[in-house]
Amino acid sequence: MKLIILSAPSGAGKSTIINALMQKDLNLEFSISACNRAPRKGEKHAVDYYFLSTQEFKEKIEQDAFIEWEEVYDKHYYGTLKSELERVESRGNHMIFDIDIVGGLNIKKQFGDQALALFIMPPSIAELERRLRSRATDSEENILKRIAKAEDEMAQSDLFDEIVINENIEDAIKNTKLKIKAFLDN
Question: Which residues are registered as beta bridge partners of 77?
Fold first, then answer.
């Protein structure tokens, strides 16, 4: 099993790209992350995320149940359960991660050449802000936090194996697929 890591600032398009890649013949299976936040409208437990209470999340940390985890925002925990690797590997698929920068780099460090780390880059901070506002899923305070974090994340893009600039979503999907296919065929 190989691991495909897609990281990007919030609103850069990584979820859209992943959803498109899942329709391609690449034998990819989505890594479902765990978090302690409330589900957004339309999100389902064990499909979009494993929604855990803060206490449950901390218990799993103590049990060493995560490949990686972090406190992304104040008291907002995200992580990848070891059981996810086992679930996907047992089905003979490759795992694709929709994960933040720190988590993505942690997985790449652990799995080395078995993982491909891709950074999805927005064309600009201004365009990223426009996309975040058009989603209408976050408060003004959260949008401002995400924009500030995005600037720091974009500065770390050179730590990834490859960068895909998402100026046009169809081109970004095509370029990402080509990079993944080359990695899987290796």
Answer: 71
What pLDDT does residue 10 have? 83
Q: What is the pTM of this model?
A: 0.87
> Which of residues 99 and 116 earns the better pLDDT score?
116
Helices and strands of the chain, counted as H and E runs: 7, 9
* Cα 34–Cα 38–Cα 39 angle in degrees, nearest 5: 80
Hey, what amino acid is at 156?
Q
Cα–Cα distance, 66 to 68 (Å, whole number): 5
User: Hey, what are 76's tokens?
Assistant: 């907002």
β 76-81/33-35 pair status: antiparallel
CA dist., res. 119 & res. 7, Å (int): 5
Average pLDDT of span 119-129: 92
Considering the domain 3-185 in this protein, what is its CATH number? 3.40.50.300
Q: Can you say whether residue 27 is alpha, beta or left, with left for phi > 0 and alpha for psi between -120 and 50 degrees?
A: left
pLDDT for residue 186 is more than 90 = no
Look over the chain and give the mean of its residue pLDDT values, rounded to a whole number: 93
Coil, strand or helix: which one is 28?
strand
